[in-house]
Specification:
The chain is mainly α and about 110 residues long. The protein has one domain. It has 7 helices and no strands. Helix 5 runs antiparallel to helix 6. The radius of gyration is 15 Å and the shape is globular.
């Protein structure tokens, strides 16, 4: 019998479940995780690898500066996806702290 494998929700992945539990992520914020799961892993790594660990408590202001800069650009071929990703991380960071956001980025960076 041929069983089709249906796409698994990011919320069902073990690392994401641990993130939700350990960082006490509210159900109302699950859409951020679901939207980030749709983003390019390559772009996420390119733009956010070490971002939160280097900026720590300044992450929010640095992310706001980057978002302002990228919104003023029109020559970036990945502009819309970058804007969306930056906004999602900023929304998450505004609600949780930089450490939780760093943890979130790490979880998504490790995804297959």
């Amino acid at each position: 019998m041929n069983k089709e494998k249906f796409p698994q929700s990011v919320l069902e992945e073990a690392d994401v479940k641990r993130l939700i539990e350990s960082r006490e992520i509210n159900h109302e914020d699950f859409y951020i995780l679901e939207e980030l799961a749709k983003m390019s892993k390559r772009l996420l790594i390119m733009d956010f690898h070490n971002f939160f660990s280097f900026n720590k408590e300044k992450s929010k202001s640095e992310l706001e500066k980057l978002l302002t800069y990228i919104e003023s650009r029109d020559d970036d071929t990945l502009l819309e996806q970058r804007k969306a990703m930056y906004k999602l991380f900023l929304q998450f960071l505004e609600k949780y702290d930089w450490a939780a956001t760093w943890n979130l980025e790490s979880v998504f960076e490790r995804r297959k």
